[in-house]
Amino acid sequence: MKKRTFIISLIIPLLVGAISAFITNNQMETYSNLNTPLLAPPGWLFPIVWTLLYILMGISSYFIYISHDPKRENALIVYSFQLFINFCWPLFFFNLHNYFLSLMILIALILIIGVIIGFLIKSKLLSLICGVLSVLIVLFWFLVASGILTNCG
User: Fold this and answer.
1) Does 116 have pLDDT greater than 50?
2) Which site in 77, 91, 105, 140 is 20 to 30 Å from 114, CA atoms measured?
3) What is the pLDDT of residue 128?
4) pLDDT by residue (tens digit) across 46-65?
5) For 57-111, how does the pLDDT look when each residue is reduced to its tens digit (9 = 90+)?
6) Which of 106, 107, 61, 65 is nearest to 86 (CA)?
7) What is the DSSP annotation of the chain?
8) What is the dihedral of CA 43, 106, 103, 49, to 10 degrees?
9) How many CB atoms lie within 10 A of CB 104?
10) In the predicted model, is pLDDT for residue 149 greater than 70?
11) Alpha-carbon distances, residue 10 vs 15, 38, 139, 146 (angstroms)
């Protein structure tokens, strides 16, 4: 049963990412036209990193789901909200070119990731280290994106 739950936990964020990528298809030229910082990642790296990030989000949600913490439902609601915002962000950034709102969404995502990290720490899961590391990698990527967005006009 846990194997099936783990696979579903991976499929959900990957599907959200795939739909978002489909909707924003052919919009990476927006990124290449930005005035980005010197250390900004190249555009080809985004699909690779986002696939890994969605996998890590799925792993983290699995750890939350299998925990016996009484607040796990609340944590899964926060996770679902975060996933929805992750779905929306590329639409605002790539399709609507609304960089200010995209930055505000990223700040909200960073705060939500903090809440998820707090839950993982409090839940005292055996797999805590993997869950927190997964979320910290996602947080790092959001911080990189925030740095890029602060240079957008």
Assistant:
1) yes
2) 91
3) 57
4) 888 889 889 988 988 888 88
5) 898 888 888 887 787 888 889 889 989 998 998 899 888 889 899 888 988 888 8
6) 106
7) -HHHHHHHHHHHHHHHHHHHHHHTTT-HHHHHTS---TTPPPTTHHHHHHHHHHHHHHHHHHHHHH---TTHHHHHHHHHHHHHHHHHHHIIIIIS--HHHHHHHHHHHHHHHHHHHHHHHHHT-TTHHHHHHHHHHHHHHHHHHHHHHTT--
8) 0
9) 13
10) no
11) 9, 33, 18, 25
**Residue carrying the six token digits 């899964």:** 76
Cβ neighbour number for residue 42 with a 10 Å cutoff: 9
Rounded Cα distance between 97 and 127, Å, is 39
Structure tokens that stand for 58 in this block: 């799925």
